[in-house]
């Protein structure tokens, strides 16, 4: 899920802060990165940083919102390139395979944030839950479009989530290919029941 953002100098200060924080948090973890480091990477004054984000939690939530937008845009682009409903379901796993192959891949930014802050930040936990539910709803719509019921969508979403976690922990992207093959079996079985 590589960023498609404009060059940093062309971005507004708020966008520079969010994209710099997104990169730093994703690479090293939220708690390991201080606000001053974000300020330096974004090229803004400390006063401007705190005017945009009075606290780190607000910045984390803005980063998660940015990640959600990047995820949804990239996933939709991959799915829209497929020409029929079954292929659109499988495109989810093609998207994951491309993402896992990116050298900067460090797992799901939402899962990472939840792991670091979910127990102490209800806002981060809620943002993570909303993102995961939106993904499951999206896959359920694709399943319905293919002629299956929402159960298939839930199964495929869980398969995709497991592939993300496995790829991050194992450090290799072949979990997307394994998940793709498992998805084919699930899709074919669900469509045969129509």
Automatic annotation (TrEMBL):
Protein name: TetR family transcriptional regulator
Gene3D superfamilies, per the entry: Tetracycline Repressor, domain 2
Gene Ontology molecular functions: DNA binding
DNA-binding recorded as keyword: yes
Organism in which the protein naturally occurs: Cellulomonas persica
Domain HTH tetR-type positions: 11-71
Family annotation (Pfam families): TetR_C_13 (PF16925), TetR_N (PF00440)
Phylogenetic classification of the source organism: Bacteria, Bacillati, Actinomycetota, Actinomycetes, Micrococcales
InterPro entries, alphabetized: Homeodomain-like_sf, HTH_TetR, Tet_transcr_reg_TetR-rel_C_sf, TetR_C
Keywords for the protein's UniProt record, in alphabetical order: DNA-binding, Transcription, Transcription regulation
DNA-binding region in chain numbering: 34-53
């Amino acid at each position: 899920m590589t960023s498609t953002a404009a060059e940093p100098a062309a971005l507004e200060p708020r966008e520079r802060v969010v994209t710099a924080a997104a990169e730093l948090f994703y690479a090293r973890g939220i708690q390991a990165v201080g606000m001053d480091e974000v300020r330096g990477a974004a090229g803004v004054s400390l006063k401007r940083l705190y005017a945009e984000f009075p606290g780190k939690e607000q910045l984390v939530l803005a980063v998660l919102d940015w990640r959600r937008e990047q995820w949804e845009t990239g996933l939709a682009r991959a799915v829209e390139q497929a020409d029929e409903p079954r292929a659109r379901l499988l495109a989810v796993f093609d998207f994951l395979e491309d993402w896992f192959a990116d050298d900067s891949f460090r797992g799901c930014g939402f899962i990472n944030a939840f792991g670091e802050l979910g127990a102490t930040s209800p806002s981060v936990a809620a943002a993570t839950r909303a993102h995961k539910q939106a993904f499951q709803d999206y896959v359920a719509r694709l399943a319905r479009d293919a002629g299956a019921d929402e159960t298939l969508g839930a199964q495929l979403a869980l398969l995709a989530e497991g592939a993300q976690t496995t790829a991050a922990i194992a450090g290799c992207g072949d979990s997307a290919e394994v998940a793709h093959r498992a998805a084919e079996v699930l899709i074919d079985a669900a469509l045969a029941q129509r």
